[in-house]
Design a protein that fits this description.
mainly alpha; 4 strands; two-stranded antiparallel sheet; single chain; about 65% helix; 5 domains
């Protein structure tokens, strides 16, 4: 297996962390008799030699040895090595890399050169190896007729359900890669989608047909799929497969811990959903069928699957959201936690589940906050989801949390979603802001959320607390900029009623690095263009960190900012996209010059969806004058996919919230809101 390994000058090769001198040890570790050492070695390969999917010269040097490892019947856990080879050899999305003979293209050539090994592995004694081999056959063996024959043969001989599902997935891949030879593969998939095949295999075949040949799907697809899901669940063992290497904590093992308890079932339905694409009626009906399954594992899979559906598509999700809310009453902790996690990221769209959230919050005070090893706690998921949905029943509970010894770090960011219902919390928020010690390590974590909440409430009575904080901030404070800017934005929002005390503080800040944001606030508080225009114009100079903030503030001044137009017109040609957008909005609002601004904003809208809310805010301020870009707004409202169309989010994801706000803004621009 390792013949010639010591002849390679590994020290001169590179991986993600520098010299590849440690790679021979990783390769030998893959062949170890110790399962912990094998998994640690595979972890190291993904972490360094194939870091985040990258290919290095050391990766190329590894390919022959990886092929030798999977060909050896003496090596355990070879399926993981096959998966690594598939990832290394997969075509690059970057055409220049493929055409130009880059490392990724060379890696693919190297894996293809050893493709015969995958032919043997397709009939290996180890089922996990047989599961990994078919996809590699389709990807790397450039003999489509032979490949289809091998897949057909294995479908006939195979008895392991997991391997059969992998073969079915490979048939779909074969159709997409070799459309000229697709007929035989489609016939196989069509046959597999019907009785007497097992329900799991039939679901797998339906998922592939949905992607490759939707005309071959049964007319009653949803009813068939839901029936197969429930039949499969009735047959499925209730036990979970153990995870190897119980004492290791490698990346590979951590990833496996995050997988669904029925990963195969999750994948089967995810594939079917993906194949249905924008057929949202069928997808919604299928999701409802999953969420009403008698099997808790099926419902848990459905909850996690729904998150990607909600993030990607605009539709009436009230029924599935209500069904997700119904999972909160379950005794299954994993299912309940999944439902809470999804509802947290839906914000206002979680309203149909509000009754279930409120019931959980009321019955489980222990879930109001979530403890951390260090620092303040955070809000617990159920309470956070209830508040983010805008439900007033969160207000008294948040008041109790505010009265506690430690304020959760994220409480202030949640309160704004309650709107007027959060008004009773204002006095407690002011009190807690007044307790923040400006010269302390935790000032940022404690002050910014509170300032955010008071700003959302427009609480003018908080001016003394905000000024106290501003005056007391030490220069050396970590993240001081964020605290100052949050405080200034608070004064911008509600300082007009206390202009006599706020104005001097803001004028002092005009001489600092916060000049742009302070000038914008001073305009809101005092309305004195002569005081802020010179400052904001000066901030437009190249290299000034406050250029965007200055342009945004100048836009608010409108025609009174005419003196800044030369600088703004230069900024419209800036290299930075966001600076161009801010300047174009300001030019249009100040001068009415849509001829210069509209093409810039149209290009930004198309190239970077994240700019759309900024552009829409500009159009709303322009009123009828923004008509040259109203076609973009109408197209946005007609689109079914969300403007960011994210299929995967993470902790604190706001994709849905941002998109819903964009939709509302578009309606307001067109006078439909």
């Amino acid at each position: 297996m390792f013949t010639g390994i010591d002849e390679v000058d590994w020290a001169s090769l590179r991986h993600a962390y520098g010299s590849a001198g440690d790679v021979p040890g990783l390769l030998r570790g893959l062949a170890s008799a110790d399962p912990v050492e094998r998994e640690t070695a595979l972890d190291g390969m993904y972490g360094a030699v194939h870091h985040q999917g990258d290919v290095y010269d050391s990766t190329l040097a590894c390919v022959p040895f990886l092929l030798a490892l999977v060909a050896s019947g003496e090596v355990a856990d070879r399926s993981g090595i096959v998966e690594l080879l598939v990832s290394i050899g997969t075509e690059s999305a970057n055409r220049e890399d493929v055409v130009g003979g880059g490392l990724r293209a060379r890696a693919r050539v190297g894996v293809r050169a050893g493709a015969e090994v995958f032919v043997r592995l397709a009939g290996d004694a180890d089922p996990s190896v047989r599961r990994a081999a078919p996809g590699a056959l389709v990807l790397f063996l450039d003999e489509p007729v032979r490949v289809l024959g091998l897949l057909r043969e294995r479908c006939t001989l195979e008895r392991d359900d997991g391997v059969l599902n992998a073969l079915t997935e490979s048939l779909g891949l074969f159709v997409r890669r070799h459309p000229g030879h697709a007929a035989g593969a489609l016939d196989l998939l069509t046959a597999q989608s019907t009785a007497p095949h097992a329900p799991g295999l039939r679901l797998a075949a339906l998922g592939q047909l949905a992607q490759c040949a939707p005309d071959r799907l049964p007319p009653d697809l949803v009813a068939v799929a839901v029936g197969l899901l429930r039949e499969r669940s009735a047959r499925r063992s209730t036990g979970r497969d153990g995870v190897g290497c119980p004492h290791s904590d490698t990346l590979a093992r951590r990833l496996r811990r995050l997988r669904p308890s029925d990963e195969e079932g999750s994948q089967l339905l995810r594939t079917l959903h993906r194949g249905l694409g924008d057929r949202l009626g069928e997808r919604t009906a299928l999701l409802k069928g999953q969420l009403t399954s008698p099997d808790a594992v099926d419902r848990c899979n459905a909850v996690w699957m729904s998150a990607g559906l909600f993030r990607e598509w605009r539709a009436d999700w009230a029924e599935p959201v209500a069904l997700i809310g119904a999972q909160l009453a379950t005794d299954e902790g994993r299912l309940r936690d999944a439902a809470v996690s999804v509802l947290e990221d839906l914000f206002g769209l979680a309203a149909p589940a509000a009754d279930d959230l409120a019931a959980l919050v009321t019955s489980r005070p222990d879930l109001w906050t979530r403890r951390r090893q260090r620092g303040a706690p955070t809000l617990g998921g159920p309470l956070k989801a209830l508040a983010r949905s805008g439900d007033s029943r969160a207000t008294p509970v948040l008041a109790e949390v505010l009265a506690g010894p430690l304020v959760p770090d994220d409480l202030g960011r949640v309160i704004g979603h309650l709107g007027p219902a959060a008004a009773p919390l204002a006095s407690a928020l002011r009190r807690r802001l007044g307790e923040v010690v400006p010269d302390s390590a935790g000032t940022f974590e404690r002050a910014v959320p509170l300032l955010s909440a008071l700003t959302a409430l427009g609480d003018g009575e908080a001016v003394p607390e905000v000024l106290r904080l501003l005056r007391g901030l030490p220069l050396r404070l970590r993240l001081r900029d964020a605290v100052v800017e949050s405080a200034v934005r608070a004064l911008d929002a509600f300082g007009r009623g206390a202009a006599s005390v706020v104005t001097p503080v803001l004028r002092e800040l005009l001489e600092t690095e916060y000049a742009a944001v302070a000038a914008g606030a001073l305009w809101s508080v005092a309305g004195d263009a002569s005081a802020v225009l010179p400052v904001l114009t000066g901030e437009l100079a190249d290299g000034k960190p406050g250029r965007r903030a200055a342009a945004t503030a100048l836009a608010r001044l409108g025609p009174e900012a005419g003196g800044a137009l030369p600088g703004l017109r230069r900024m419209v040609r800036a290299e930075d996209l966001w600076e161009r957008v801010s300047a174009a909005c300001a030019v249009w609002r100040i001068s009415g010059d849509g001829e210069l601004a509209a093409p810039v904003l149209r290009t930004a809208w198309t190239e970077n969806p994240y700019t759309r809310r900024t552009v829409t805010a500009c159009l709303a301020a322009l009123g009828p004058a923004g008509a040259p870009l109203h076609d973009l707004v109408r197209a946005e409202l007609a689109a079914r996919r969300r403007h960011l169309a994210s299929t995967s989010g993470g902790y604190g994801s706001q994709d849905v919230l941002d998109d819903e706000r964009l939709v509302r803004a578009c309606r307001e621009v067109l006078g439909a809101g």
